[in-house]
Each structure stands twice: as C-alpha cells, then as structure tokens.
UniProtKB/TrEMBL annotation:
Family designation: Belongs to the OpgD/OpgG family.
Residue ranges annotated for the Glucan biosynthesis periplasmic MdoG C-terminal domain, each copy included: 37-504
Species, as recorded: Microvirga aerophila
Gene Ontology molecular function terms on file: carbohydrate binding; catalytic activity
Protein name as annotated: Glucans biosynthesis protein G
Keyword Hydrolase: no
Name of the gene this protein is made from: opgG_2
Annotated metabolic or biological route of this protein: Glycan metabolism; osmoregulated periplasmic glucan (OPG) biosynthesis
Sorted UniProt keywords: Periplasm
Transmembrane feature ranges: none
Gene3D superfamilies linked: 2.70.98.10, Immunoglobulins (2.60.40.10)
Compartment(s): Periplasm
Any one of the GO CC terms: outer membrane-bounded periplasmic space
Nuclease recorded as keyword: no
C-alpha cells in the first residue's frame, strides 16, 4: 500500500535526514509529526528557496521508467483505492507514477486534522503491465496526482490532473481532457529559450464531508523565482478552481505570464493548410475570448500559421480571458476517438486589479495534432523586481461555456478560402444571437477595418430562421505578409455583436 511517513512543521532548517526519505532533496524545511499545518509555512518555504541559488532536481528515476513509451506509461495502474475514497468526503486523490516525460519528482503530503503526513512510494502499489521490473527501486516519489469526484448521483469521475512542470488541467462532468493551465509562465518564445518552473511539493488538505471542494498548496521553483500557490478545486457540471499565487523573484522578471493556458489548434474551417485528413477539423479550442477593462467583448479565432505569430492585446484591469471550445457538435469534427466537441473551455477571471499589461497569444506552427501549439496568458506591463513579493489571484471556470457571456451576438463561424484573383482571400464570418432573428434593426451595419491591406466585395446575408447574420468579404493583402482585421456589427451607433479580430498570414 501507499506508505504515510509522519512529519511535522517544526522549524524551517533544511533536514538532511529527509534526503534519504524523499527523492526531492530540495525541500528546505523540517517537517515532523503532531504539529499544526499553517499555509503561511508554504510561503515561508518558497521565500527561503528564493534566498538560495536554484538547484536542478536530482533525477534518480531508473531507466526502466524514463525510457517508457507513452503507451507503456499509461498502462501503469494503481493497485490501491484512491486516498480518502472510502471516507465519503466527496473528493479523493491518486498519486501518479513517474515515467515517460514525467521524470521530475514531487513530494506529496496530506493534511489531516491539522497534521501533516507524507505519502511514500511503494512499487507494490502499482501494476506496471510489463515484466522485468527492477529490484530495490526504493522511494522514487511521484510525478503528480489526479483528483476524483465521488459525490452526487453520477459516477465518480476524474476532474483534475496536476502533473509536469507547473501544469494542471481539469474538466467538467462529461468532458474529455483538453486545454492545460500553467500556474506560472516564464519567458515564452524567448530567443534564449523558455524557462519552465516546476512544482517541488504539494500539501493536500483532506476535504470536509459535504464540502465538495479540496484545497491544495504547492511550492514552485525555477532559476528566476520561487513561489507558493494555493488552489481550491470545486468539481461539478462546471469545475471551478481558485488560484492564489505569491512569487519571490530571484532576479528581475521582465516577462511573466499569469493565468497561462495551452491548447491545440491543428486545422479548421479557417485554416486547412496541407490537411489531408478524413476529419473535418482538429482542435481543442476554437478561439481566444477576452473581456477587457473597458467592457468590450473580443473574439479571436485561432489558427495554425506558417511561422510563429505573437499577438498582444493591450489592456488595463482585464475582466476575463480564456480559450474556448465553441463547437459542440460531433459533425464539426467527425472524430470518433478524440471527440474534440467534449473538450473544456477555460475562462480566467482575475480577482483584484491586475493593472496594466496585455493578453498575449502565441500561435506556433505544427504539423501534428499532438503538439500544444497555442498559448495565451496575461503579461503585466511592470517587471517584478528581485527580492520583491508579488501576489495575484484568479478564478478558473473549466466549463462547456463560461458563466459570463457577451450580451451580444457572438461569432459562431469563421471560414477562409481562395479569393477571386492572386493573393486575395475570401472570408465569411457568421454572427448569431436573438437580436439577429426576424426583427433586424433597420440601421444594422457591419464595420470592418483592415490594416495593412484592403477589402472588397463586402456583403451581408441574413438567416433569421437561424438567428444568424453572415458577413463576407475579400481581403487583398497586396504585398503584405500580415494583415490585421477587425469586424463588428452595429445598430443605433452601438455594438450589437462582440468584436471579431483576425490576423491573416500566408
């Protein structure tokens, strides 16, 4: 069975005797039995880490596990029931084995009745699905954990996985895993390379009976900063995660990403570059939704470009942003295995004023659907200085559609194809909403701006039976290799649709 190693929270000195117990030797603390858990200790550990040079985690993973293929890794199954699964608390968890690309070890602790206990690894707790397991593995720790909902009348379901770097993902009931969140993003698309912070350890508080929530504390570490994070998960038909993070920079941080979300966009109706596939579309998220500080709703369809594209949507005090999957029909994808229509939308709602900065969007060329080639995050304008302490918080909604939606017509389709001549490209953008039914405003108009480049042959078609209006036009880029477009429906001098944004590249 999984071993619980008793520990306490007395003192903050590094305990060398724990080095033999834990595969992660960089937890600079002393933990022992029968002491009260205090969340402030997690921040103290991160602060202490930041005061010392960063040390790469020791990789003690046997080659047997580090050389596993994906299929061999996912074949590893736990022989034990989930921790707290038989206690009727509504939420349980299961430690995840190391292996494949998940080679870093994290220490897992449980907080029960205010005390701390470490979850120890035992090889007998797992079924490896293959023979020739090496002897004397020892305690190699875990790569992360999965959270399981056991409450309600429905069947238990995995609703979150925390594993790899500072990545985690969640789903609502009935969904498949898709978009992935990042607790911290550092220097993405930097010419010198992105910096990937890691989780060092987690403390999981045993849920109260009937609470349908679990709080997880973690320590983040990287070359540039250390940090403490507190995540409260509430699973259900919409899974909500509150994330509170405090960073302790070792150096001046010029490029920090908050609320990072990664996803995949391979091809769709607006971008079928070299897609020789029986499926109609392949993507986990269809676009980037933003509600800026001025109350404007923005929609930016995703695409798979020929070259790296970086977009910055400058804002102050953002009210929300996220990667949404708006396509919810099987017919959109025709994929019997992946079922992309069941992937979650992920909406971030800042808690408190995030000040000035920009929502950044990275679209990375890919020739395979297995690559996460989309990344979005909030980049604060002001750098974080070495030795400072910076706190921020936000709420995540892993959902079918976000709880706050535009009170306007929304973009339901973007189609792009060959234009009439030369480099021209033809666009068709569909807006849908109740206001686009039988009683269209007499002064309704579409407002399209393009720069650089020009547009021609703008036409509007109304489909009141579907409460849809289509705007079609041709983009003439001339000799340009990037054109920014902005389209909105107006009536009475006011917007009646969200704002459609698009960057065309060859």
């Amino acid at each position: 069975m999984l071993a619980y190693i008793g520990v306490s929270v007395a003192g903050l000195a590094y305990a060398p005797e724990l080095r033999a117990q834990t595969p992660q030797a960089q937890i600079y603390t002393r933990l022992g039995d029968n002491q009260r858990f205090d969340p402030s200790i997690v921040a103290a550990l991160a602060r202490q880490l930041a005061s010392k040079p960063f040390v790469q985690p020791q990789n003690n993973l046997p080659d047997f596990f580090s050389n596993l293929t994906y299929e061999q890794y996912v074949a590893i199954k736990s022989r034990q029931a989930p921790i707290w699964g038989s206690e009727g608390r509504g939420i349980a968890f299961e430690p995840l084995h190391r292996g494949f690309v998940f080679t870093n070890a994290v220490d897992l602790y449980v907080v029960e009745d205010g005390g701390v206990r470490r979850v120890g690894y035992e090889s007998a707790s797992f079924d490896y699905g293959r023979p020739n397991l090496p002897n004397d593995i020892g305690d190699i720790g875990f790569s992360g954990f999965r959270l399981i909902s056991t409450s309600g009348n429905g069947k238990p379901f995995d609703f979150a996985i925390v594993q790899g770097a500072t990545f985690f993902r969640a789903i609502a009931r009935g969904q498949n895993y898709g978009a992935i969140a990042r607790a911290l993003t550092l220097k993405p698309a930097d010419p010198k390379g992105e910096e990937f912070p890691i989780f060092r350890a987690f403390w999981l508080e045993r849920p109260a009976v009937g609470s349908n929530s679990i709080t997880v504390h973690g320590v983040i570490d990287s070359e540039s900063t250390a940090g403490a994070v507190r995540m409260t998960f509430r699973p259900g038909d919409m899974t909500i995660v509150d994330v509170e993070t405090t960073l302790f920079p070792r150096v001046n941080l010029e490029h920090v990403g908050l609320g990072g979300i990664g996803s995949t966009y391979f091809y769709g109706a607006n971008d079928r570059r070299d897609a020789d596939d029986i499926r109609s579309a392949v993507y986990e998220s269809s676009g980037l939704q933003m509600l800026n500080g001025q109350g404007e709703w923005l929609w930016r369809p995703l695409h798979n470009p020929e070259t790296l594209q970086i977009s910055a949507f400058v804002d102050a005090s953002p009210r929300g942003f996220g990667l949404l999957q708006r396509e919810r029909t099987y017919e959109t994808f025709q994929d019997d295995d992946q079922r992309f229509e069941r992937r979650p939308s992920l909406w971030n709602e800042p808690l408190g004023d995030w000040g000035q900065g920009s929502v950044q969007l990275l679209e990375i060329p890919t020739d395979a659907e297995i690559n996460d080639n989309i990344l979005t995050y909030w980049r604060p304008k002001a750098p974080m200085t070495a030795g400072s302490e910076v706190a921020f918080a936000y709420r995540q909604y892993w959902c079918w559609s976000p709880p706050e939606r535009p009170p306007l017509a929304t973009v339901t389709s973007t189609r792009v194809g060959r234009g009439s001549t030369g480099r021209r490209r033809r666009f068709a953008v569909d807006f849908s909403g109740d206001m686009l039914g039988d009683n269209l405003p007499a002064d309704l108009k579409s407002v399209l701006t393009v720069g650089p480049g020009t547009f021609q042959n703008l036409k509007i078609w109304s489909y009141p039976e579907r409460k849809t209006l289509r705007v079609a036009f041709e983009l003439d880029p001339g000799n340009e290799n990037a054109c920014e477009m902005r389209l909105i429906l107006e009536a009475g001098g006011k917007p009646i649709s969200e704002t459609w944004l698009y960057r065309w590249t060859p």
